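Lay summary

Proteins are chains of building blocks that fold into shapes. Our project writes down both the chain and a compact code for its shape. Here are two examples, one after the other.
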Amino acid sequence: MPKYVAFLRAINVGGHTVKMDYLRRLFEAMGFSNVETFIASGNVIFDSTSQSTQALERKIEDALQGALGYQVTTFIRTTSELVDIARYKPYKDADPEAEGNTVYIAFVAETPGDEAQRKLLSFTSAVDEFHVDGCQVYWLCRKKMSESEFSGALLEKTLGMQATLRNSTTVKRIASKYS
């Protein structure tokens, strides 16, 4: 049975607090098995017989809208996709592991178009560097995110689509369970 990771937008941010045991029960009520959460930021790992990530995303979004009363945009990746994402090296000429650097991975529903990518790359600076690989946007931030002039909200506005950000360390920790 395929194993998936759901990256949920708007969980435990902006006043939307959801306990992880409740979130697990919601996923189990949707018919998913082997449900587990990873840290309290909306990362849910589960098994499903479905072969369609888009159908899973809609099912989860509808159920969470009903249960929580607000939209929770959902981005699904298989565990094998997540392993590839965690291993991907978007910055050939920069050391993302250097002191003070953090790489964030934004999950989006579709590959941003050429114009959106051009807009995004125009925000490249001494602090922020960006790279797009399919439905993932990598953001190398050379300071604390709060010290950058860029933000997740600006990312969504620039791309013209919703996204959810995760620290690459979180993604690597989830992926390491399945590599």
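And here is the second example, written the same way.
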Amino acid sequence: MLLVTHSPVEVLDWHKGTMYPASVLDRILFATRYTRHLDTHGLLRFHHWKLYAERGLPRAPVTVWVYDGSLKIEYQAVTLATYSVEVEDDHKHVRQVSNPRLVETPFRSPQLTLWNLGPEDWVLYWRAEPYARAHRKRLASEISQQVLFDLVEVERAVGAEGVAAPHPWLRVVPKDPAQQTEE
């Protein structure tokens, strides 16, 4: 019996596959993608930075691509803005942002501005304050309601049993929970 070996080129030579441009491959293989929402002024928050994208898209979901020292903000595959970034050693956090470049888009706001400002005339990015830590909520068992007013006991008519409260929805709750379970 004769053993025949074929090289991978001989076996897979007939299959060419799909050819993709280098820019698409760079995006797929070397980029990190995030989804954020713009605020009412066209800004988004990204890793302790506020970045301008487009004022004409309030509260719209945008895609943020981070790769090779650049950050690109897109909406429906249309580039809104690009920034140069320096990434921390952990490759997850942005250390420095610079060189903003805005792109003319069809999503411009219909509201006219008072002054025509260029990108060099206004602030397009800044380091934002960190989020405040959430405070622990107090449990309801730690809270005690003070008596609002004294309930006056009203005697019932002759032949009625016991003493009636002035309103059936008002009652005195004892301070000690053990007393409450005994009743």
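What can we say about the second shape? The first strand starts at residue 32 and ends at 37.
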